Structures are given as structure tokens and as C-alpha cells.
């Protein structure tokens, strides 16, 4: 041990947010060799030329109210240089309720756009060529339905399905753990995911039919190490299910993608991605013998902000998001969403949304951070921390394995409880001031005026218009055709063999509503019963 | 032992923590439920996706001293109104309702006007929230 480290041993302990002891000074002997970029195990990135060959996709999450209002926001963002769309859906669409359902009533068009049937998605993409953009849908419980709807819009626009690019989140496991838009029990949900992924592999080979997400468990309170470990464990569960359904891992693994949060510890966040990318490639190779380079590629999108943003002195959030954006780029993200500073307390305004977009553009074009591949490589601290994080991830995955795997851990509520306890620890550390949040628990101004700039106001007529349109669609569609499509879907869902995707596309073309399709599937499969363990 | 556990200022109180509507973010509700339990309360947590009618029924059946609603979907106004209205209609208007979640600062007064007794966001220290609750339920 060096003299410095010995001296440091007596000093106060400093840890990363994941609890890894940080050395006062990192030294050469602590760092391993990360290898070359574009070469297994891809610590330095999946491409040899990093962002030089392809910059990351700037993908701002937006969508609210009616399809018409969202369509206008999308056109605005595309004109402003955004390179991909990311669609936020309202909770009724996410949870499988029609807008006129009593459970849906107060939430219609609130946190995203209502897509109750094909009619709405046609409006959403009016004047936008689906063959020329990539679209990401944050949708899970009803992902297969929304994907089917997207295919139906492409069919109607005359765009060949093979040209479609984009992503549906379609990761139900983490919904049970953190985000909460589950509908069916775990096992039939896995079937629906396998159906959509296998169908996508052949029908829309450039479309990612699943984005395995750690973002939500992270925002619910777990650490960066746990976020990656839980996500990779879920990823392996999907791989196992797809193999069981006859999928070829070397083929479908090429289209698996991932999604994470980036919070404030710059190095831990950058190293999380370096470690996770490497660990995923190793797991696929070790467990399934995958050798195809592209299938080993760990491609991921991120969101910067979330619970790291606070309502106190909200303009500070702009700075936080810029630092997180930097961490994401240093970690090699393929697509980035930067939250607006006001998202800690409201849906962003056009002003704050534009500022969030500009933040990314400044990082991309002015900071120089993307000019060379993995610029942190070879830093003693970064290589050491990357190794420690990989060790930590393997350890957490081992604990899940020892419990009996993720599916059991979720069905029992074991994983949910672990995350709740972690959230409590984080809250206590924040309340005690051990976790510093500037402007909130440090340097807080009690005299601060309660002014937060521009206020977002949802058009109060939105829900009424959505309801009206919903009634109109049901009135004007070919009722017999819709009924037939639903009957066929239900019969196939009651069996186990048939892939439901073509039938869902038929239902969408017949203007069946999301609520109708979900109701038929619930009749076959029932609903998830949430295990509440505190 | 934490300060909450030491004070046990909610000992003997039954408190319902509920997630009305479709919002699936339950980290906050669970943190609150755990903290209330540490402070001595008997906590009933509903789990996700409950209708206001269901929440009112549980509040009555379980004879709770307070109801906490966790809402991060922006529907705090409508859902609080329905729960408070339901309690009043059932003759239990004296049961205080507290709201936590993503509540824009400009919406707080409207919630108080509906009859909500306290509004908490993720930057409210747990100790402060529990002190206020203990005072309100004393």
C-alpha cells in the first residue's frame, strides 16, 4: 500500500452512492487494462470508432393530451434538430383501460398521449414518415398492442415493415418491481413479450421489440450497482424465455436493448455502463456460448434527471442534467433523454423542454467529449471502479439466483421489498444531510420565493375531446369486423401455441380499442395480484 | 434506533396509505408506510391502482385515524376530491386526508381548499411530516 493510501486509512471514509470505498488517490497498480473499443468484452464501447461513426440519438420523451397536440410537439422537436421520437402515453393506455372506464377518468391524456385505438396513432404521426424516423414507445403492459398499432399505421402509410426503426420498452418484469403498469400475471406476460420479440425479429428486423430497463428501479431507490444487476438478471430471464420458445439467441440478442437512469455521481455512472456492457457480453458468452459480435453488443439508452432533480431551487436541475448527460456520453450511451428542470414538479413547458434539448446539443457539439472513443479509458480510478462495479453486480445477481431467480423474487415480492428498504435508506441519508442535495438540504434559502417560472397547464378540454373521439370510433367502425377480430384473439390467447402478434395487428386494423383487447386477454389470463410486503 | 422509532409519536394510530388511480410509482408510498410504522403507527398499505371508492371503504372498514394518498400522475386534484367527498358522504368527514407525491407548488392551495390537511413532496423530511401528523392526530 502506498504512503498516501496509508495516510488516507485514518481519514474519514468516502464511498460512492453504491457504497464502494473510494481511494484518496488511485494508483497504476489498481487499474486493469480495458482492451480496445469494439472488441470483446467491449469495456470501451461496442464500436471501434465510438461516436465518430455515429453520434448518440437525441431522444426527448414527450407527448401529452390529445394525439393532435402531441403531433404538433413532435413536429416542433423534429424541426429543432431532434433525431428520434419518444412517445409518452397516458396511464389508461399503459394500463389497458379505455378513456371511458371509471378507473381511467381522471388520468386521460395527463402524463402522455391517449392512444386508445389506431385512429389516435394515425393522428399522432400525421405528416411524419414512419420510414424516415425512429420512434421509441415507453410502453410495457400493453406494449404488444401499441407495437401492433404502429405496424398498422405503417401499413396504412404504405411504409414496408422492414424499414421501421424504433423501440418498445416491453419490459414487464421491472413493472412488477417498480413502475407499476402491469396487467396480467408474470407468466402470460412473458408469453406476450416472447410473441412480440420473435415476431419483430422476422417482420421488423430493425426494430427493438424490447428495451430492458433498470431506470425505474433506480429511480425507485436502488443503487447504480443494483440497477445494472437487476436489469441484467431480467435480461437473462427474457433470454431464457425466448430460447424456451424456440428463439435463436445469436439472432434475437442482436435486437435486445437496455435503458437506464443516470444520476449524479459522474464516475460511478460512467463506470456503471462500462461494467454493465462488459458483464452482459460475458454472460451471453459464458451461459449461452454466443460468439456473434453483434449479438454480444450491449446497446442502451438513458434518461438523465428523474429523482435526482428536486423542486427546491429548480434551476439547479439544469446543471445536474448537464453533468448526468456528460456521464452518459462517457459511458457510451446510444441514445439520451435529458429531463427538463421542471420535471421534479410538473410536465415540462415548451421552454424547459427546449432547454433540455439544447443541453444535449451543447454537450454534443461544443464540449468535445465525443471526439475520441471512451476518453476515460486508462484512468486508474475509472478502470478500478469499473472492476469493482462489475464485482458488485455479479454479487447482487448471485443473491437473486440464490433466492430462486427473478421471476420467483418478483412473484413473492422479495425484490420489491429490497427496493423499498433501499429507498428508505436513501431518504434517511438525505434527511440527515449525509447525501447532499444543493438548494434542498444544503444551502437552502428559506426566504426563497415560491416561483418556478412558466407553469405547464394541460388543456382542460383534452379529456372531453378524447372521450368524444372514442365514442365516435366505436360508432363508425365496422362492428362485425371488430367483434370477429376480438373473438379470434381471445381464442388464440386461451391456447398456448399461437403467436398473438398478427391477431393484434388485425384487431388494430379493425379499430378495436386497447381496453377491448386487454379485456379479452384478461378473460383468458386473469390479472396480476400484487404481493404487498413491507 | 432512529429518532422516529424513539419518539413513537404515532403509537396506537391506524393509518391508511393508499395509491389512488393508475399511477404506479410506489417508492414514496412505501417509504412513508415504513416511516409511519417506525413511529409506532399501525399501517395499512393498499398497494397500487385503487379506486377512490375502494379507499373510502377500507378507511371505514378499518376505522383509520388518517388517510395518506400518494399521487405522482398529476391527478391529485380529482383523486383527492373524490376521496374526501366519499369520506364526507359516508359520515367520516372528520378523518384527515394527507397527500404526497409530485405536487406542483402552485397546486398546494387548491388541495388545502379541498380539505386536505397536509401536502408533502419528496423533499419533506420524514421527521417533520411525522411531527405534523402526530400533532394533527393528537
Structure description:
The complex is a heterodimer of chains A (534) and B (138). In chain A, 50% of the residues lie in helices and 7% in strands. Chain A has helices spanning 3-9, 50-53, 67-79, 91-95, 118-124, 143-157, 173-179, 186-203, 215-219, 224-244, 249-252, 266-288, 293-296, 316-331, 350-365, 380-403, 406-411, 414-431, 462-476, 479-494, 501-509, 514-525, and strands at 57-58, 61-62, 85-87, 134-137, 165-168, 207-208, 210-213, 256-262, 299-304, 335-338. In chain A, the strands form 2 sheets. Chain A has a 5-stranded parallel beta sheet. Chain A is globular. Chain B has a single domain (8-137), classed as Rossmann fold (3-Layer(aba) Sandwich). In chain B, 43% of the residues lie in helices and 17% in strands. In chain B, helix 3 (52-61) packs across helix 4 (76-89). Chains A and B meet through helix 4, helix 7 and helix 18 of A and helix 2 and helix 4 of B.
Amino acid at each position: 500500500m502506498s504512503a498516501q493510501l496509508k495516510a488516507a486509512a485514518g481519514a474519514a471514509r468516502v464511498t460512492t452512492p453504491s457504497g464502494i470505498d473510494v481511494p484518496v488517490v488511485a494508483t497504476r497498480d489498481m487499474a486493469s487494462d480495458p482492451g480496445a473499443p469494439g472488441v470483446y468484452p467491449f469495456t470501451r464501447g461496442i464500436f471501434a470508432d465510438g461516436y465518430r461513426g455515429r453520434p448518440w440519438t437525441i431522444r426527448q420523451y414527450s407527448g401529452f393530451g390529445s394525439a393532435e397536440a402531441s403531433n404538433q410537439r413532435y413536429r416542433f422537436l423534429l424541426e429543432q434538430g431532434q433525431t428520434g421520437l419518444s412517445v409518452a402515453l397516458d396511464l389508461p393506455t399503459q394500463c389497458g383501460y379505455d378513456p371511458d372506464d371509471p378507473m381511467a377518468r381522471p388520468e386521460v391524456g395527463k402524463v402522455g398521449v391517449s392512444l386508445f385505438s389506431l385512429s389516435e396513432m394515425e393522428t399522432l404521426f400525421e405528416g411524419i414518415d414512419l420510414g424516415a424516423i425512429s420512434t421509441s414507445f415507453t410502453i410495457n403492459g400493453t406494449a404488444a398492442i401499441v407495437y401492433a398499432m404502429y405496424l398498422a399505421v405503417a401499413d396504412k402509410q404504405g411504409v414496408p415493415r422492414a424499414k421501421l426503426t424504433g423501440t418498445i420498452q416491453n419490459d414487464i418484469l421491472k413493472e412488477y418491481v417498480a413502475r407499476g403498469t402491469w396487467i396480467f400475471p408474470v407468466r402470460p406476460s412473458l408469453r406476450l413479450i416472447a410473441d412480440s420479440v420473435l415476431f419483430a425479429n422476422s417482420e421488423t428486423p430493425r426494430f427493438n421489440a424490447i428495451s430492458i430497463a433498470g431506470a425505474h428501479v433506480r429511480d425507485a431507490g436502488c443503487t447504480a450497482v443494483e440497477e445494472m444487476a437487476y436489469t441484467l438478471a431480467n435480461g437473462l430471464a427474457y433470454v431464457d424465455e425466448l430460447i424456451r420458445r424456440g428463439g435463436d439467441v445469436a439472432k434475437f440478442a442482436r435486437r435486445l436493448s437496455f435503458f437506464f437512469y443516470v444520476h449524479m455521481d459522474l464516475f460511478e455512472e460512467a463506470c456503471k455502463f462500462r461494467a454493465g456492457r462488459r458483464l452482459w457480453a460475458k454472460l451471453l458468452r459464458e451461459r449461452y456460448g454466443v460468439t456473434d459480435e453483434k449479438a454480444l453488443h450491449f446497446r442502451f439508452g438513458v434518461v438523465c434527471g428523474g429523482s435526482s432533480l428536486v423542486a427546491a431551487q429548480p434551476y439547479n436541475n439544469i446543471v445536474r442534467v448537464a453533468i448526468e448527460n456528460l456521464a452518459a456520453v462517457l459511458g457510451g450511451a446510444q441514445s439520451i433523454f435529458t429531463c427538463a428542470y421542471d420535471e421534479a414538479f410538473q410536465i415540462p413547458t415548451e421552454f424547459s423542454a427546449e432547454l433540455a434539448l439544447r443541453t444535449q446539443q451543447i454537450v454534443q457539439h461544443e464540449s468535445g467529449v465525443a471526439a475520441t472513443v471512451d476518453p476515460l479509458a486508462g484512468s486508474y480510478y475509472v478502470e478500478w471502479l469499473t472492476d469493482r462495479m462489475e464485482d458488485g453486480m455479479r454479487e447482487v445477481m448471485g443473491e437473486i439466483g440464490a433466492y430462486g431467480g427473478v421471476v420467483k423474487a418478483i412473484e413473492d415480492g422479495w425484490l420489491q421489498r429490497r427496493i423499498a428498504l433501499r429507498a428508505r435508506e436513501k431518504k434517511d441519508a438525505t434527511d440527515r444531510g449525509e447525501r447532499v442535495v444543493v438548494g434542498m438540504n444544503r444551502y437552502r434559502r428559506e426566504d426563497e420565493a415560491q416561483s418556478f417560472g412558466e407553469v405547464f397547464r394541460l388543456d382542460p378540454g383534452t379529456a372531453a375531446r378524447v372521450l368524444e373521439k372514442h365514442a365516435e370510433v366505436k360508432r363508425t367502425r365496422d362492428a362485425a369486423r371488430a367483434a370477429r377480430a376480438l373473438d379470434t384473439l381471445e381464442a388464440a390467447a386461451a391456447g398456448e401455441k399461437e403467436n398473438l402478434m398478427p391477431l393484434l395487428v388485425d384487431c388494430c386494423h379493425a379499430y378495436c380499442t386497447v381496453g377491448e383487447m386487454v379485456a379479452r386477454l384478461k378473460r383468458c389470463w386473469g390479472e396480476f395480484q400484487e404481493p404487498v410486503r413491507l | 434506533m432512529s429518532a422516529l422509532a424513539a419518539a413513537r409519536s404515532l403509537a396506537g394510530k391506524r393509518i391508511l396509505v393508499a395509491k389512488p388511480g393508475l399511477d404506479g410509482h410506489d417508492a414514496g408510498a412505501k417509504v412513508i408506510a415504513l416511516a409511519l410504522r417506525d413511529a409506532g403507527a399501525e399501517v395499512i398499505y393498499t398497494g397500487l391502482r385503487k379506486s377512490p371508492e375502494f379507499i373510502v371503504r377500507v378507511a371505514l372498514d378499518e376505522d383509520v385515524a388518517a388517510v395518506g394518498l400518494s399521487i405522482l400522475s398529476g391527478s391529485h386534484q380529482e383523486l383527492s376530491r373524490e376521496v374526501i367527498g366519499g369520506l364526507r358522504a359516508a359520515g367520516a368527514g372528520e378523518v384527515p386526508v394527507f397527500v404526497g407525491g409530485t405536487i406542483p407548488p402552485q397546486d398546494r392551495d387548491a388541495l388545502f381548499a379541498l380539505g386536505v390537511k397536509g401536502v408533502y413532496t419528496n423533499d419533506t423530511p420524514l421527521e417533520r411530516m411525522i411531527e405534523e401528523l402526530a400533532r394533527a392526530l393528537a
